[in-house]
Design goal:
four-stranded antiparallel beta sheet, 7 helices, alpha+beta, 258 residues, nine-stranded mixed beta sheet
Length: 258
């Protein structure tokens, strides 16, 4: 493949910084491989120089793969600069074609490793929380390949984190059954369930650990947002969105956009 990696990296970084949309990379110089895409994504992160607080796993909801033309999950990073509490409004001007995704977030106490089974991985989790990931597309109309989404930092914009819930055995074993109802104002938009993300949040954690290279492994203290339980819905300034999580979580989350 003929491609100027340095120029590609700068183009992606500038588009993300300015909320400017560009043509997909794969339409300009042939198909990227997954390894090339993650390499470019790492270079973009080097330019951004942000403080990592965790990871996002995207496209874990197989039901929406046909909508976006993808066929596998991806991962990106979550930064301290883009971590919001529920009382902080989110300014959408910094994002391209922003959408909202209701998710279950895991907080890690210990570093998981690939050799662990799901029970051992669950033992690495200290807390769980409801979350809204605001995702974006620097590619017009949300048209891209899996590789394009990877170089664009997994389409991550920011993360709104709700109240943390202690990760007891009952909580961890019940996450897949957590029901979710998403609202825009008083309008019911969509419902979902914890199992919509690869069968459950712990399964997502297992998949993420298998995806990461030796130099990208998770550390204790990081959070992992495990993917949307519904479709990703467009959002606009002036709107307020909320979600009710049931079962072992039994909590609510809301966000206001400016």
């Amino acid at each position: 493949m003929i491609r100027d990696i340095e120029t590609t990296t700068k183009t992606i970084a500038e588009a993300l910084a300015s909320a400017r949309q560009i043509s997909p990379m794969t339409s300009e110089a042939g198909q990227l491989t997954l390894d090339e895409a993650y390499s470019i994504a790492s270079r973009v992160r080097g330019i951004q120089g942000k403080k990592r607080v965790g990871r996002k796993v995207g496209f874990t909801n197989r039901a929406i793969w046909p909508v976006y033309g993808v066929d596998q999950p991806i991962w990106g990073e979550v930064y301290s600069e883009g971590l919001f509490s529920t009382d902080q409004p989110v300014n959408l001007a910094r994002y391209s074609e922003p959408r909202i995704e209701p998710e279950i977030v895991l907080g890690l106490k210990h570093a998981p490793i690939a050799e662990m089974d799901n029970a051992q991985l669950a033992g690495c989790v200290e807390w769980v929380a409801p979350g809204f990931e605001i995702v974006q597309s620097i590619y017009p109309g949300w048209k891209f390949s899996v590789e394009d989404s990877i170089v664009a930092q997994g389409l991550h914009g920011c993360l709104v984190l709700g109240d943390k819930i202690a990760a007891t055995h009952d909580v961890l074993t019940g996450l897949a059954e957590v029901p979710l109802a998403l609202f825009k104002g008083a309008e019911a938009i969509e419902s979902g369930k914890g199992e919509n993300a690869l069968g459950g949040p712990i399964e997502v954690l297992a998949h993420l650990v298998s995806l990461l290279s030796d130099t990208d492994q998770l550390q204790g203290g990081e959070l992992v947002t495990t993917g949307t339980l519904t479709d990703a819905w467009p959002v606009s300034p002036g709107e307020q969105w909320s979600a009710g999580f049931g079962g072992v979580m039994d909590t609510e989350l809301s966000v206001r956009f400016t």
